[in-house]
Amino acid sequence: MLDESGLLLTPLVRRTLAPTGRTPRLVHRARHRQKVSLIAALTLSPRRRRLGLYFRSAPDQYFTQDTVAAFVRHLLRHLRGRVILVWDGWSGHRGPAIRAVCAAHPRLELVSLPAYAPELNPVEHLWTHLKWGELCNFAPHDTAELNAAVQPLLRRAARDRNRLRSFWKGAKLHLPRGR
Length: 179
Known about the structure:
Elements: E1 2-8, E2 35-45, E3 50-59, H1 65-78, E4 83-87, H2 96-104, E5 108-112, H3 123-134, H4 143-159, H5 161-170
């Protein structure tokens, strides 16, 4: 399962606790469209039932079909055997760069999620965890600080098998039985 998202410099505000009479203030210096773009793939080895997480970030950039194709090639270097890549119908998942990756790697099969069904993609649960859990009320000074904050969170999530399993189960997907 693969998905893209973005983290804006403007903080996602959630209720928090503060001493009586001292309303917390979030001061930010965000400009229009400053963000860190993220791409991630939650992988499942059906034989070993092992989940993995691969990710990349791009401060102040947007993902295009070329950068998505480069990420898919990166995945293919790390994954053995047949790879079934499930993703949404975003236009960056189509085009000459993606077709070239498919032509160069016959072991890759692309499957699209149904339209308007983000709840079926476990990577969406990763984005929710980051945005509304780990980074809520966080007001970085710039995209470099935001990127520096998100990298260890993604690495920690990649190492936490229980968290990866919760993302998978959150999408109501069952783990196949090992052989």
